[in-house]
Design goal:
This protein is 47% helix and 12% strand. It is built from 12 helices and 8 strands.
């Protein structure tokens, strides 16, 4: 069983969108995934999102996705929420992935906005509800128009929130005004999907984070959110400001690239990237070291 949750924090407060470790020859590294998952939960994560974009989901097969969820559940499923990314731009395919995730034992689903084909709002509504109808698992929507090309409109979020299994939203829209209205009107548990806005989103009603930088600063993120929730906004702000170089550095280029480079620098499982992703250049790694050091990360 996963850790207990509340309607306010259905997946906990601090989650990391985990990379997918590969072996030197590019194969799935299940042992490495279990070691990395254990490390991240030991560091303070309430949950892990597996098979998201940071997990290179566009380049892993359906079978690999299922194997990865199974392995991570075996490693940490008794003490962390394991959420399976099942979003694609094909509703039928997403339904299949969702059903497989449920059979495999995942505790929840992350469903990203269909990308590239740019459906209208009614198409988004039908897509998300069809996938949510396919299993008994709680669902976190993922609103990231910078990647998908289409935002989930506030009125659409209000409609989706009526679905009994759609309980949360991962917000990478970058619009605090729209987030404020949507949080107020939907009652969904709101998770920051943009690390630079972790603290600002808490201030308008978010409950936690689905983070990329959590690979390297989970303890700090945990302290930040706990300080904020307990009313110590000054402490939360100080941590936010300390982490600014990390937020900036981890997204100077594509986040999977820098995350795998940072994990390699720390001797943690990561491995190569699958094309079309590429490894960071020596110059990018040198800059990443500077950024991480400036944010207090030990390498």
């Amino acid at each position: 069983m996963a850790p207990t949750s509340t309607p306010q924090t259905p997946f906990g407060r601090v989650l990391t969108a985990m990379v997918t470790p590969f072996t030197a020859d590019g194969a799935l590294d299940l042992d490495g995934a279990q070691r990395l998952a254990t490390h991240l939960v030991d560091a303070g994560n309430d949950g892990l999102v597996i098979n998201g974009t940071t997990g290179e989901s566009p380049t892993t097969s359906d079978a690999e996705k299922a194997d990865l969820v199974r392995a991570v559940l075996e490693a940490v499923g008794d003490r962390a929420h394991v959420i399976a990314g099942v979003g694609t731009n094909d509703t039928h395919h997403s339904v299949e992935l969702a059903r497989t995730a449920q059979r495999t034992g995942a505790h929840g689903l992350l469903i990203v906005t269909p990308y590239y084909n740019k459906p209208p709002q009614e198409g988004l509504y039908r897509h998300f509800t069809t996938v949510a109808d396919a299993t008994e698992l709680p669902v976190m929507l993922y609103d990231i128009p910078g990647r998908s090309g289409v935002p989930i409109g506030t009125e659409t979020l209000v409609r989706l929130a009526e679905h009994p299994r759609i309980v949360a939203n991962k917000d990478a829209k970058g619009d605090l005004g729209r987030a404020s209205w949507a949080i107020a009107r939907t009652g969904l548990a709101w998770y920051s999907g943009d690390d630079m806005l972790n603290l600002p989103l808490l201030s308008v009603g978010a409950v936690g984070f689905v983070s990329v930088v959590g690979h390297v600063v989970t303890p700090e993120l945990r302290t930040l959110v706990e300080a904020y929730v307990s009313g110590d906004v000054q402490k939360a702000t100080e941590i936010h400001q300390k982490l600014l170089p990390v937020y900036t550095g981890m997204f100077r280029t594509q986040g999977v690239m820098t995350t795998k480079a940072a994990l390699a620098l720390q001797g943690l499982p990561a491995g190569p990237l699958r094309s079309p992703m590429v490894e960071c250049s020596p110059e990018e790694i040198a800059q990443l070291k500077i950024d991480l050091a400036a944010g207090g990360v030990q390498l």
